[in-house]
Every structure is written in C-alpha cells, then in structure tokens.
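QA checklist item 7 of 12: single-chain prediction sanity check.
[x] sequence parsed
[x] length recorded as 167
[x] structure emitted
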Amino acid sequence: MDSPNGSDYTSQEKLSQTVKPNVMKNFPGRQSKTNLSLILAAFVVVLAGVATGWFLTGSSLGSTREGAVVVPQEEKEKLAEGELGIPVEDLSGAVKEVEGTLVEGGIEGEGTHHLERPGGPSQNVYLTSTAIDLQSLVGKKVHVWGETLSGIKAGWLMDVVKVKVLD
C-alpha cells in the first residue's frame, strides 16, 4: 500500500539498488595452462629450426668462414684462366658486363668500388660483390659481369659475380 509520504516507493528503490545483475563472468582457470603449453611448443619449434640450420651448415661454435661464396672445384674448372667468380652461364636473370679500371670507393655509401671508364665520372660503374674480393683487384683493368641493382646516387650500381683481369 502506498503511504502519502512515499515510504513504500523508497523501500522498492533501495531493493533495486542492492540487487544488481552480475555482468562479469568468471573465466575458467584452465586457459593459463593452455597458453603455457602453446608458448612452450612455439619455443621448441624455434629451437629445433635453429639447431637444424646450425647442423646443416656444418659449423661449430668457434669457427668462422672466410669469403662470401665458396665455389666448388668443378665450377672453377668452367672459368677461363684469369677469371674469378661464378660462371655466368650458371646464373639466371639479366647479367650485364662492363670494362674499366677498378678503383676503391663507392659514391655516398653505394658500392665499395667503382670502375673508371672513358667519359669522366658520369660513366663510372659503382660495384659491390657478394662473391668476389674486389680489393685484391684495385688498380687493374678488368672486365666484370654482374647484375644491376637499383641505386639512389649511383647512375649504375652492379653486384659483381665474375671478373676477368685484362692486364
């Protein structure tokens, strides 16, 4: 029954304020065990991949390898006398060739060496190599084969794969 002073309404209001529905649900504790096992499985897979790569390279912990590319003996036999590198016939893609005098130094961080050719600095070919030690050929007239790379400052940037000393 409603009283004129509204006391029944106040008691209903208090009742609705004390009973609130539970919006949050409790998550089962099993989820953390699943996450832990997934993390451990991922770690084991990564560790197995690293170990496989290490064994396939035949490396030991203290060893270092000199040079960037090891050319097998049968590949060396395909090269003519005075040539260094990888036989061009074995390469896929567009292999370019150029002649000039090998000089140490690139242009603003592009290339480790460059070929000086007739026509001035605008005709220089800037070189880098993952297969050949260019430093041992500095000052010599050479014929080089390689793949063109995109350079920002260098007009022509080349990754050298084969070199023939001309003089």
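[x] summary fact logged: The longest helix spans residues 30-57.
[ ] second reviewer sign-off
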